[in-house]
Write a structure and sequence with these properties.
This protein has 188 residues and is an alpha+beta fold. Helix content is 45%, strand content 13%. The termini are far apart.
């Protein structure tokens, strides 16, 4: 049974399976790449992919499916299962734009919360950076003029945090760093 005469290149069941796969992947913090639509478990052909694209662009049942276009790949995700903010982070990881991802994360946390960002955050998903990557990125951020607002703050326990001086003063960042790492645990 086809969805409508314009979308008869992909049947309704295959379309629902594809969208459900995107939603499940999004719930796990992952994109579905355009090129993976040709592979298991989806295995669509060219005509079915055209029908899929037409359906998600035109049918209200699939308006949660979003597309991000990279340099060489397209990424699908569900806005119901993944926030736009998290999707942007996953996108930067997929596109290997990791220094910019780190800087954007630091700036966003400094502005929105406002708080400095623990460098240890970058060991976690979606970043999954290694020690060497983090050391290199911190060094590069400190040496690159486009990141001149990114500054360090260290707690007395040695924990390293980064913040944007566009949004936090040095004193505020240092006080928050010390509170997060040390003082809150010393107070009952």
């Amino acid at each position: 049974m086809s969805i409508n005469k314009d979308l008869d290149v992909i049947n309704e069941e295959r379309l629902k399976e594809t969208v459900e796969h995107i939603r499940e992947s999004s719930a796990k913090g992952r994109f579905v790449k355009y090129t993976s639509l040709y592979q298991e478990p989806i295995s669509l052909n060219d005509r079915e992919i055209e029908g899929f694209i037409e359906a998600i662009d035109s049918l209200p049942d699939y308006e949660d499916i979003a597309l991000l276009k990279g340099k060489e790949e397209k990424y699908y995700y569900s806005r119901e299962k993944m926030t736009e903010s998290y999707a942007k982070m996953v996108y930067r990881v997929e596109e290997n734009d990791l220094i910019k991802l780190m800087a954007e994360t630091i700036r966003r946390e400094s502005e929105i919360y406002p708080r400095p960002t623990a460098v240890s955050l970058f060991y976690e998903r979606p970043f999954s950076f290694s020690d060497e990557m983090i050391k290199t990125f911190v060094k590069n951020i400190q040496e690159d003029a486009q990141f001149s607002d990114i500054k360090e703050s260290k707690a007395t326990n040695g924990a390293l945090y980064l913040y944007s001086d566009k949004h936090l003063t040095e004193d505020h960042a240092k006080a928050l760093t010390e509170w997060i790492e040390v003082i809150q645990y010393e107070n009952p």
